[in-house]
Design brief:
By secondary structure, the protein is α/β, with parallel strands linked by helices. Strand 2, helix 2 (about 45-60) and strand 3 (about 60-65) form a beta-alpha-beta unit. It has 12 helices and 10 strands. The relative contact order is 0.13. Helix content is about 40%, strand content about 15%. Helix 8 (about 175-185) packs across helix 9 (about 190-200). Strands 3-2-1-4-7-6-8 form a 7-stranded mixed beta sheet, sandwiched between helices. Strands 5-10-9 form a 3-stranded mixed beta sheet. It has helices at about 15-25, 45-60, 70-75, 100, 125-130, 145-150, 165-170, 175-185, 190-200, 250-255, 270-285, 285-309; strands at about 5-10, 35-40, 60-65, 110-115, 115-120, 135-140, 155-165, 205, 215, 230.
Length: about 300
Amino acid sequence: MTHHVVYCFDENYEAHFGASVTSLILNYKEPGESLCIHVITECASIGFIEKINFLKVIFRCRIEVINPTEKSIDLLSSLTVSVNHIDYISRATYLRILIPILLSEDVDRVLYLDADTIVCESISVLLDSAPVGNPVYGVSDFSEGAMMAHHGIDQYINTGVMVLDLQCFRKENHVDKLLGVARENTGVLKYSDQCVINIYFNNDINKIDDRWNQFILHDKKSKIMLGGIFHFITKNKPWHSWYDNSHGDIYWHYRRVSPWHQGEPEAPKTVEQYKYQARKFYKNGQHQRAQGIYEEILKELVSHIDQKR
């Protein structure tokens, strides 16, 4: 049996995809030939393809890089990314909706993963045990209550980890209908295609065990279950130097053993990010470094006020 996994991302998430896909492969317990990874991205650099080929040779898994066609991109051109202007969501997120038409028709069931996930358990366990009969399977989103009320629906999943029945999508022409929902609800989509999928499928979504999409935030303690999949949600990520959750270390573990091992945590650029950095320093006993950052923030604020006078 072949287990199919799909990623969709833009060039900003290439290295983070590298950490995720390496964790996926290293924790897969079946023969490598049984794993087929479909990578939907506009990244087409020589370096990217070389890294993909390295993984294919070393682990003997199948990896297919799919560059969306111009026609596919045109389907998404009129869609709104987010009414909240969330800067870590790009139009590439809508590529998830196009999975059934971008993959070969002989692929009938897939696990979709966001590039900011780390896989800690063989995904064969999930794909071999997930029930059949529904088009979408996922885990309740951490903001489920608020989003159910916002959209007037009965449940709301996080779409960063989903099992998708592609046969059902194709048979019922769900892709065109999802795109229609996206266009009709432009003003209310807080989380882009995630809202679209939840609005459209609603009660046709089936739940899977919560361990397969465990939400981790940068400055909050997380109750973590063994195995499953870690999902680093919200705009602050483990690759940021101000990230303040020890569970983020697992991202760097897999990043360092991946072909994308080069690179260091990103330095802060905004006042908010510098404040997070200072808090992290203070928490770790680096009081002078924290004080230095706060002093620089105050200088910047005073300078800004003086310029307005």
